[in-house]
Structures are given as structure tokens and as C-alpha cells.
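Re: duplicated header lines in exported C-alpha cells

Our pipeline writes sequence and C-alpha cells for each protein into one text file. With two proteins the header for the second block appears twice in some exports. Here is an export where it did not happen, for reference. First protein block:
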Amino acid sequence: MKILFISNIPTPYRHYFFEELNKKIDIKVAYLSKTELGRNWDYNKICNPKYSLFLETKQFVYKRLSFYIAKNYKQIIDEYNPSIIIMAGSWNYPSTMQLIFNKKYRKDIKVGFWSEGNFIDETYSKNYFLKKLKKTVYNSFDFFLTPGKESDKLVNHYAKNKNIIRLTNVAVPQYYNPKNRDLTKPLEICIISRLMERKNVFGYIKAVKGLLLENKIKINILGDGIQKDEIKKYINKQNLKNINLLGEVEPNCVKDYIIESDILCLPSFRDPYPLTLIEAMFLSKPLLVSQTVGSVPEVIHNNGLIFNPNSSKEMYDRTLEYLSFDSKKMHELAENSQSIGKTKFEPSVVIQNLVNDLKKVQLETNN
């Protein structure tokens, strides 16, 4: 079995997955570009040349989003001769449509779509033309890979009765046993996020300002973005001394910040299936998560609290609720978090299940 993945750019959160999958089956990963706007990763560190290559593409940008037209699709496909092709990225890339609308020339190859979007923030369904186009694109795929229930809803909305294979996000398995919370100190909250409106970090800071001023909580924020200066100005103006804007942190140091925290918070308005939550669960951290995060059905089960990101009161109340928990309750939440992480997101199990499911797809092709 030979699998060809076609993705937009190399990313650190996919590198580990491809490295582990490559140990199980023969894969090739063809990227459309080395980088995009706002993505500052060194592709040399997250792109293994043993199985990776870059397509010849024409890139153009619209509203800070990159789109691609690939020049040598057929050449790469014919040279590698895969059993299965899996598209990753956005359904509306010209390169996505370019592949599926020309796939008839190799009818022996099954084509799947790795869909990480979720139905919570779906907007195209309100636009007749885009809805029609999206249905056409989705129904052109033979199967889908999805990380969770909200993504399943999105697929079924546009392409009913398609084969859906579960592929939860894969994080490097680093484990840490629960630690007892010191109730004499402020509740230490870790937020790992880009600083932009969609991530709602600024909104959360404003919502819990009173708790910061009362020295009941402390927030460490790992990440950078266009709102950084605005947030920094607000922090100084309000004299919020219990917030640390740490900027971009080296990946190998992120684990330490999570371990030292009491909880991990993700207040996003939109966030499909963030890897950060899985990493925090492996490290035994209770969660405080926006209800519009796509993976809530998979990650929250007696190990955290959820809130409406549009409600300052709910963000404040749920944070205050954590302050009411004693050490025993916090320890229970932490244990539950790691247990869910190991049960649902253990990489070796996730990857082996994927390999088994792809073998079934290959058998269907051969038959």
C-alpha cells in the first residue's frame, strides 16, 4: 500500500504524525509551498526529505489566505503510483479542485479528503453558490478522514453516505502524573494561542480582569500575533501584574509551562481540533475550553469546564468555579484528563487504526 498525501505546507503539528506513519506504511507527502503568511516555522526541521517533496505551484494570496494551482500533479502521481491519495488543507483550494475534477485519468486510485473543519462555525451553507460548489467538491471524494463528531457533521452536511475514517489529532506522547494544587497560591492558567481576534485571548483577559486584580489567578500566555501590542497596552493600563506575555516559546519548553500550570485554557471563538488540548491532557491538566472548539465532544468528560466565548460572565464564572475546587477535586479532574488522553489519543493506537482502515480502502479499490 502506497499513500500520497497532498498538503499546503509542512507544519510542526503534522511532522510527528508523518514520521510515525512512515514507519508503518509507504507514504509520500507532497507540499504546495514551503510557508505561508503568519507561519514562521523552519520547514527544514519539519520536512523529512526521505518521504517529502514540494510540488511546482503558482501561489496567490487573497485576504491573507494562500491559494495554489499545481503544475505537476499528474507527473508526481504517475511517478509515485500510489494506491490512495489523501488531500489535506482547504476544500476550496484550486489545487484541490484541480485534483478531484481530473481524477478520472487514474480511476484505479481512491481519493480521500482530510477534513478538519467543524460544523460549529460553518458559514458557506448560507451562500447558495458556495454551498453548491462545496457539495460538488465533497461528493467527488471517495472517503474522508475526520478527527471528531463535529467534523463528521460537516462532511455529512455536504456528502451523505460517504465512508468516514476516524483520525484524531496526534500529539507527541509526553506524560506527567497529576500534581496537587497549592490552594494558597493564585490559580495558574496557561493559554497557548496566537494573539488574534478569532482566538479570543483578549476577550478572556478582559472577562477575568477582576480575578487578576484580586490576585486570585495568574495567566501565562504562550504565542504571538497581531493583537500583541493592543493586549500589552491594555495590561499596562489596567496594571495587571499577574499576566505574562511570553511570545513564541521553543516547542521543547512548552511542556514545562503546561506542567507548572494548574489548568489549560482555550477561549477561541473558532478552533477546529487543537493539538494543545491533547498535549495538556497527556500532562494531566484540567481544561477550561470554549464551547465552540470543535473537539469539545471528544476531550471534555469530567475533566474540565466549558463556556460561551461570547459571554464575559460565563468566562468569569467558569474561572471562578475552578477557584472553588479543593485539591481532591482538582486531582480528580487531572487524572480524568490523562485517562481520556491515553484512551482516545494514544498515537500508536490512532495510527495503527488508520493503517487498518486505509488497507480496507485499498481492498475496495482492488475489488
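Second protein block, exported in the same file:
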Amino acid sequence: MLIRRKDFYYTIAQGAQAEIKIKGSRFIGETHLVKSGEEALVELETIRKREYDATHHCSAWKIGLAPAVDFKYSDDGEPNGTAGRPIYDSICGRDLTDVLVVVTRYFGGTKLGVRGLIEAYGESATLALEAAGRKGSVRSREAFAECPYEHAQLVLRQMAELGIPEDAVETRWEAAVILSVSVPLSLEDGAASLLGNYTERGFISRWGWKK
């Protein structure tokens, strides 16, 4: 199946670290997969406690997809615009979301200047993101449906014709057939119409969206 572009996005494949040293200062870039600003803050606080003697913990996160993107970046005491924004630009430059990047700095005694800081934080973030890798995912909403055995194949066939991939449907054969479906967001209205219509016609006993 051809996944529609609006349903597809990239995030990091794994958490990772990368470190560089510039004029005595250590810059440690670290990536985390996060699904909310609250998760990002928890991860950031964990790093602060672990690297308690560091000079700065500059960060950026980007969560979700347009038009509902949650993002934030912080210079954490570095000159305005020299740390958080370069980190955020590294995330955007790789077309990623649902990711937190923290760059921890141990000051080495030599000031780097505005341009030097921008380059150092940007490079640290980029190296950490490269180490984390990139994976594609599909935006979806989870639905469930219950139907009698004799109608299960009809329902599955109609879902396939709607465009829902076979591997997005989990089937459990119990007293009735229980379907768990990851519906790509662009097919949400079509799936609701199909499932609702089939419920009215008696092909499906009940259905709904999972919370």
C-alpha cells in the first residue's frame, strides 16, 4: 500500500549520545524519544541530576505534527540564541518529531564567542541525531470492532479496499471476531463511515475508537 505523505513522519530510531571537545569544553549531545512535553521535562531533569556538575544543559524538543506541533528550546544560561535554537534547527533539518535533544556542556575555561557556541551546540546535536538514526512511522488512530464469524471476511476485505494495510489489523477469534485496527489519519472519516454503516446493517456488533 502507498502511505499518504500526510500520514507519514520520521522520528529517531533509538536514544543515542555523541561528544565533542572544543577548546577544553566538552559538549555531550543526547537524544530521547518523547511523546509529550511532560516526558521531555522528565528526561531533561534526569540528565540534570546525572550530570549535576555540568555548566549548562541546553535543550530542544519537537513533538507532534502540523498543525499541532509542540516545541521548545532553551539556552540554559548561554547567550540568547546560541544553544537552544541551533539544537532545534538540527531536529528540523532532519525532518524529525517526537524527539528531545539535550546538549550538556562542561566549560573548559575558554570562551567560544557567539559564533563558536552556535557551531558547537549545532554540531553536538547533529552528531547525536545521526547516531540515533531515523525511522519512519505512520500517524494513526486506534479503533476496535466486534463482528460475527460469518461477516469477518467481508469486513476485512472492505477495510483493505478502503486502504488500511493488512498489517494494521490485528484479529482475535474468540466468541466473536475482535478486530484492533490502526487507522491512518487520512482514512479516519472513511473508516468511521464504513464501520458505522456495517454496524447499522448488522455485519458488526459494535465498534469504537480506543482512548
